[in-house]
Specification:
mainly alpha
Length: about 160
């Protein structure tokens, strides 16, 4: 008899469960799209377009390869492609916006003696540069991981997952 209560028109329990599931699914799917740019990156600080211009204005292009920035093709420093998919900044900081902004402004205070000079980038420009870098996602899969990122149990754990393209 209990089973009939779930499907009969007089039993509101089933209706409430379905309605609650639909509302919950709608809320989750809607929240996944809020605050994201066209690449799916959450950017709630800075302006990526101004960041692209600031990269040129502050001389970042003199040392780095930066996709989407004209003339940013120097092999002196590390390339900044796939920035949004990286785990660490200079191997020292977790790749999160506040740490990246601090690194852009004063890399020598984070890691004294590293090759990146303090360029005197103001906070607003550093936020814009960071916002642009977080729009840069991996365009192809790596052939194998070259590091054991957070959550990986051992180097090479995903070797079967990564493919050659």
């Amino acid at each position: 008899m209990r089973w009939k209560m779930w499907i009969c028109p007089g039993g509101w329990t089933w209706t409430y469960l379905v309605l609650a599931a639909v509302i919950l699914a709608s809320a989750i799917l809607t929240s996944c799209q809020l605050g994201r740019d066209e690449n799916g990156t959450t950017v709630d600080f800075g302006d990526p377009q101004r960041g692209r211009e600031a990269i040129t204005a502050h001389g970042c292009a003199a040392c780095h390869v930066v996709p989407g920035v004209r003339g940013a093709d120097s092999p002196i420093g590390p390339p900044l492609d796939d920035w949004a998919d990286r785990w660490y900044i200079a191997g020292r900081l977790i790749n999160e916006p506040p740490d990246l902004i601090r690194w852009i402004q004063a890399p020598q205070s984070v890691d004294p003696g590293n090759a990146m000079p303090d360029m005197g980038v103001p906070t607003d420009d550093a936020e814009d540069i960071a916002a642009y870098l977080y729009t840069l996602h991996r365009t192809r899969r790596r052939t194998s991981p070259n590091w054991a990122g957070p959550g990986m149990l051992a180097p090479g754990l995903l070797d079967g997952y990564w493919t050659r393209e």
